[in-house]
Amino acid sequence: MPWKKVKNLLATQSILLASGSPRRREILSLLGLPMEVATPQVDEKPPADKDVFSQISEIAEKKAGWARSYYPHHLIIAADTEVILEGRLWGKPKSREEAKAMLLALSGRTHIVATSVVVLFPRRERYLFQEKTLVTLARFSADDLDEYLSCENPLDKAGGYGIQDFFGACFIERIDGCFYNVMGFPLPRFCQFMSRLEFTDT
Amino acid sequence: MPWKKVKNLLATQSILLASGSPRRREILSLLGLPMEVATPQVDEKPPADKDVFSQISEIAEKKAGWARSYYPHHLIIAADTEVILEGRLWGKPKSREEAKAMLLALSGRTHIVATSVVVLFPRRERYLFQEKTLVTLARFSADDLDEYLSCENPLDKAGGYGIQDFFGACFIERIDGCFYNVMGFPLPRFCQFMSRLEFTDT
Asked: B72, CA 20 to 30 Å: which among A8, A64, B6, B141?
């Protein structure tokens, strides 16, 4: 991968990360590039008439569109990460009770974590890709969850858990695929994706 | 998993983590339990007459034995993590040049990361398990590595990379198995393992 090319390219741009997720910010900070951050004010409810994977891309597109209207000259990076089980999106829980019910449904099973990433260039080119990872959780009980829910905040995380918190450390038996994707941003794929683009005009 | 049982059990013990790895410390801190830490002063050179997976266990046993001689009444946790490719251990690089050569050998291929964990109880019971994870790296060039080697320290990491640093974020295409294992301690497996033990005497 021509990593220097990617880094040099990005270094010439004003970058705006359109995301409220602290984990996504943390992952992208590994690139060591200056980056502005803004939390998109959009309705994240997915359009019900599409398949789940298209729904995720649509939410990411919405976030990118919101950012473009405020930041017309930036290279915009937007993303949406969702948990999928039984063919449907599980979203972010609205309460601890809902988080508990979600997590109990995931206990002892394999689910999909999918992230859609949208990159908008200042000259209006738009790129989109999606990364999927399988996550297998150990079996756990409602009692086990009380411990987790009493000390962590499950409400800002799709599916109610974070791969890097107490829950992830104890209950994620295995993942198959990109683990940064499960954290919220598939950086390896992003770097590969960017390295394949030709930039002659920006 | 009877998580509360594990946590309550561990809370009754004085725990000593026999490891110099800051990442291992960080992972175990997710348990939220008080823990002492000591860096084992042992020869980590593996015994050449054993298969690679037994070599890793032997190094972990050595570390645990070292800790026992200084901490006779603690519950001791020791571990050794190694990178395996082409049937041999790759160890920690001794110089940046060696790190570069190691990483170039791993480029574009799948290797194994294996950790042996030894748990010694105060009454002399000893337990050992091993966790293996497959890690697939993207193709990268010597040029790509210069960037990494100029800003990170590869010398304290088996194989010369960290899953959570700049390199991991950009070049680890996928992992199959436990990602905490790749960081240096398979905490999910540890919790499951501990939950299956019966403690009547400690």
From this structure: B6
Q: How far is A119 from chain B (nearest CA, A)?
A: 17
In this prediction, residue B109 carries a pLDDT of: 96
Q: Which residues, given as ranges, of chain A have pLDDT below 50?
A: 200-202
pLDDT, one tens digit per residue, over B113-125 is: 999 999 999 887 8
Identity at B91, one-letter amino acid code: G
Q: Give the residue on B whose Cα is nearest the Cα of A5.
A: B144
Set A51, A80, A143, A201: catalytic member: A80
**pLDDT tens digits along A160-175:** 888 777 788 788 999 9
Check residue B108 and give its pLDDT: 94
DSSP β-bridge partners for residue B116: B80, B130
> Looking at the annotation, which residues of B are catalytic?
80
Which residues of A fall within a CB distance of 8 Å from B191? 170
Provide the 3-class DSSP secondary structure of residue A54.
helix
A154: left (phi over 0), alpha (psi -120 to 50) or beta: alpha
- pTM, entire model: 0.83
- Nearest-angstrom CA–CA distance, A140 and B5: 12
**Which residue type does B142 have?**
A
Judge contact between B127 and B193, C-beta under 8 A.
yes
All residues of chain A having their beta carbon less than 8 Å from the beta carbon of residue B106 are none
Q: Is A80 a catalytic residue?
A: yes
Give all domains of chain B, ordered by start, each with its CATH number.
Answer: 3-196 (3.90.950.10)
pLDDT at B165 over 80: no
ipTM for this model:
0.74
- B199 pLDDT more than 70: no
Q: What percent of chain B has pLDDT over 90?
A: 54
Residue B136 is classified by DSSP as E
Query: What confidence score (pLDDT) does residue A201 get?
Result: 44
Find the chain B residues whose C-beta atoms sit closer than 8 A to any C-beta of A.
1-4, 7, 27, 30-32, 138-141, 143-144, 147, 151, 163, 165-166, 169-180, 187-189, 191-192
User: Cα dihedral angle (B44, B45, B48, B52), rounded to 10 degrees?
Assistant: 50
